[in-house]
TrEMBL record:
Belongs to the NrdR family. InterPro entries: ATP-cone_dom, NrdR-like_N, RNR_NrdR-like. Its cofactor is Zn(2+). It comes from Syntrophobotulus glycolicus (strain DSM 8271 / FlGlyR). Binds 1 zinc ion. The gene is nrdR. Negatively regulates transcription of bacterial ribonucleotide reductase nrd genes and operons by binding to NrdR-boxes. This is Transcriptional repressor NrdR. PROSITE patterns: ATP_CONE (PS51161).
Amino acid sequence: MRCPFCQSDETKVLDSRQIEAGTAIRRRRECEVCSRRFTTYEKYEDVQLIVVKKGGTRESFSRQKIMNGLLKACEKRPVSTEQLENVVSDIERELRDMNEREVDSNIIGEAIMNRLFEIDEIAYIRFASVYRQFRDIERFMEELDQLVKNKSSK
């Protein structure tokens, strides 16, 4: 593996861990030339998932796009990056288990909202406000009321 800092091919593996339910490996490496450390990931290549957007356009599934949305929703909230990575992995696994090449974006959005509801209610509301595109305060209040009802029924 080439060092991303000095481009040397002389690197060593310090630690390897299985992640994403054993479907990937995270390796912590150190360059033997510049002594800087970096992380690499190994993952098997799977069939490309296509996301069908609301307007009918199609784009490749992106773990990073989901992670970015989660990070924004969870900004300054007590939610760890590991929790968010697990959410992304769970959602991707569910989508692949559907055995469909194309998936509607609303399925992904609802899956994200369900996970956020369990993790952090404020992050859930933040994500819902963007995802559901609340046009007015009444719609926002309906979502809050639903959140309170769901919480009290648990």
